Amino acid sequence: MTDKSNEQDTKGLTVTKAGDMPEWYTQVCLKAELADYAPIKGCMVIRPLGYALWQAIQDQLNAYIQEDGVTNAYFPLFIPESFFSREAEHAEGFKPEVAWVDNKDDKNGERFAIRPTSETIMYDSYGKWIRSWRDLPLKINQWCNIVRWEVQDVKLFLRSREFLWQEGHCVYETADECHKETLHYLERYRQIAEELLAIPVIMGLKSEREKFAGAIRTYTIESLMPDGKALQMGTSHDLSQGFAKAFDISFQDKDGKSSMPWQNSWGMSTRMIGAIVLTHGDDKGLVLPPRAAPNKVAVVPIIFEKQKTEIIKAAEEVGTLLKEFTPIVDTRDEYTSGWKFNEYELKGIPLRIEVGPKDMEKKQAVVVRRDTGTKEFVPLTKLKQHVAETLEQMHTELYDKAKQRIAADTVEVTDFAGFEKAIEDRKMVHTTHCGDDDCELVIKEKTAATTRCIPFKSGDVKGKKCVHCDKAAQHAIYFARAY
Ligand SMILES: [Zn+2]
C-alpha cells in the first residue's frame, strides 16, 4: 500500500459530543470546514461545504415556493430610520438590534438602518405597487443577509451579527386567505426540517411575549438539540393589517371600494446548518442527512502498487456508475486510504465506497454507512440501487433516532419544583400555563427557560392549573432553555 502521507492527523476531534458539546460543536464546524471565524467581531465565514448545505436548503424551498406562486426579488440593505417609526411595536422590538449608518446625502441627516428584517422597506414599495384586487395576492420572497448588531460572541451558524436567510412577504385580500397561507409556509419549513434535513420539529404558536414585533400571531417550528437547548428553526407571522395601515397599503376591491389588505411574513436562516451539526453529528464529526448532502458518496480506491492503474480505473468506473449521487472519487496518491476514511467521516459524507483488489476480482464494492459504520459487500450490478435505497434508509433512521432522543428529553410536569428540576437536568418541559405575560417572565428569570410554543396538537386543559402561579391553565406549552 502506498503511504506517502506521514503527516500527523491533526484534524480529528479532541473532545466527545457527550463530554463537551459546545467545544465539540465548534470543532466540528471548523474541522469539517463548514465555517470559520471572521476578523470582525461577532461574524463568521461560511466555507464551501457549509454553503453547499445552504444551497440544498435554498433549492428545496425555492422549488416549494415556486409551486406556491411566490417569486424571488431583492430589496435594499439600507432602511431609512423613519420607516421604522411607522409601526410602533416593530420599531420598539428591533431597536436594540439595529446597526446605523450615517447618511451625509440627506439634508435632514436621516440615518439608515442595516436591515434586521425587511418588512418596512418592502412594504414601502408594496404601497406603491398595490392598487386593485387584481394586484393580489402579492407574494414575494428574498434571499439575503441580515444584521443583528447586538450579538457580541459568535456561535457559528447559531448566533452571529450577520447571517443569511430568506424572508417571504405576502399580501392578501382576505384575513382568511392570509391566515391559511401563514400556516402553509410554516408547513413548508416543517418539510425542509423533517423531509430534507431529517430533523424532527414541533409546530406551534409563539406566546405573546415571544412573538415577532409587529405580528398578531407568530407560528414556529422548534426542535430540541442534544444539549437540551431548543432551537427555533423557522417562523411564520400573521401581520394582520398593522403594517398595511402604517405603510398606507390599500386596494380597490371588486365592489370598487377602498380596502386594506392582510399580510404575512416568514423566515428561515443559516441556523438550519447548526441544527444539522448538533442533531446528527457524532464523535467522529459531521453526519450529513443524505438528501441534503452535496456529495452523497465518497469512492476510495484501496491502492496497492502492483495493481494501481487497474484499481484507480475500477474506482473511476464506480464513480461514473454512481454519477447521480455526485460522488467524490478520491484517487489521490499522496494520502493513505485510512487518512481518506477519516476525512470523509469528519465531513459527514453519508456513504463511503471502497474498491480494493479483491473487490475488483469479485466485481463488487464495499459500502460503509457514515452513521452506523455498517459495512456491506455489494455486487456492482446492484450497486446503484443499493446506494439509493441505503441513502433513503439512512434518512429515515437519522430522523427516527432524533425523534426518539427528543421524546426521551421531553418531560411532562405539573408542579414548579418538577419544572425547575427538569430544566436543570437540561430537558424540555411540556406543561400547562396561564398565558400571563408576567408569569412567563418570572419563570424565565427563575430558570432561564422560555416558552417555545403552544403546540398545534395540544390536549384539553380544562380544570388544569398553571405550572407556576396556580391560575387556571390557558393552554399546554413547551418550555426550554434556548439558543
Ligand atoms: Zn401562571
Describe the structure.
By secondary structure, the protein is an alpha+beta fold. It has three domains: 260 residues, Bira Bifunctional Protein, Domain 2 (BirA Bifunctional Protein, domain 2), CATH 3.30.930.10; 94 residues, Anticodon-binding domain (Rossmann fold); 73 residues, Translation Initiation Factor IF3 (2-Layer Sandwich). Helices cover 35% and strands 25% of the residues. The protein has a five-stranded mixed β-barrel with strand order 9-10-11-23-22. The chain has a five-stranded mixed sheet with strand order 16-15-17-18-19, sandwiched between helices. Helix 9 links the parallel strand 15 and strand 16. Helix 2 packs antiparallel against helix 6. The longest helix is centred in the last third of the chain and has 29 residues. The chain starts with 20 loop residues before the first helix and ends with a strand. Bound molecules: zinc ion (ZN). Zinc ion (ZN) binds next to loops.
Instruction: Please identify the structural class as seen in this structure.
Output: alpha+beta
Tell me the major beta sheet: 5 strands, mixed, barrel
Question: Level of helix content?
Answer: 25-40%
Number of domains: 3
Oligomerization state: single chain
Ligands present: zinc ion
Which geometry do the CA atoms define?
globular
Q: Low-confidence runs (pLDDT<50, min 5 residues)? A: 1-9
* End-to-end separation: 47 Å
Helix count equals 14
What value does the Rg take, in angstroms? 26 Å
**Mean of residue pLDDT?**
95
By CATH, the architecture of the largest domain is named: 2-Layer Sandwich
Strand order of the largest sheet: 9-10-11-23-22
For this structure, the CATH topology of the largest domain is BirA Bifunctional Protein, domain 2
Question: CATH homologous superfamily name of the largest domain?
Answer: Bira Bifunctional Protein, Domain 2
What is the beta-strand fraction?
A: 15-25%
CATH class of the largest domain: Alpha Beta
How many beta-strand segments? 23
